[in-house]
Amino acid sequence: MDNLNRNPWRDAALDFLVSQTVVLGEMSNILEALQEDWMRG
C-alpha cells in the first residue's frame, strides 16, 4: 500500500480547502448581488 496516496490528514485538509473555496465563492456572489441592489437603491 502507498501511504502517500491514502493519507487521511491530507484528504481531510483537501476537503476542508475545497469546502472553504466553495463558501468564499458563494459569499462573493451574495456580496455582489447586495452591492448591485444598494447601488440601485
What can you see in these coordinates?
- With 41 residues, this protein is mainly alpha-helical.
- It is 80% helix and 0% strand.
- The protein has one helix spanning 8-40.
- The longest helix is centred in the middle third of the chain and has 33 residues, at 8-40.
- The protein is rod-shaped and about 55 Å long.
- Keywords: Plasmid.
C-alpha termini separation: 61 Å
- SSE string, helices as H and strands as E: H
Unreliable stretches, pLDDT < 50, 5 or more residues?
Answer: none
Q: In percent terms, what proportion of residues is strand?
A: under 5%
Mean pLDDT: 90
> Main sheet?
none
Number of helices: 1
Q: How many extended strands?
A: 0
User: How would you sum up the global shape?
Assistant: rod-shaped
List its traits.
single chain, mainly alpha, 1 helix, 80% helix, plasmid
Structure, briefly:
This protein is mainly alpha-helical and 41 residues long. It has one helix spanning 8-40.
Break the fold down into its secondary structure elements and pairings.
Elements: H1 8-40
